[in-house]
Design goal:
Low-confidence stretches: none
Largest sheet: none
Helix content: over 70%
Number of helices: 1
């Protein structure tokens, strides 16, 4: 699940940008 959480965080960062 760590990989999923990391992917979600990355996507969230992109959305913020």
């Amino acid at each position: 699940v760590d990989a999923v959480a990391e992917e979600v965080e990355l996507r969230k960062s992109t959305n913020d940008m």
